[in-house]
Amino acid sequence: MHVDHINIAAPAKLLEEVKNWYQQVLDLVDGFRPQFSGRGYWLYSGSKPVVHLSERDGYLDSDSQGYLDHVAFQASGLRAMEERLRSLGIEYRSNHIPEIPMTQLFIRDPAGTGIEINFPDEH
Question: What is the CATH number of the domain that holds 94?
Answer without folding.
Answer: 3.10.180.10
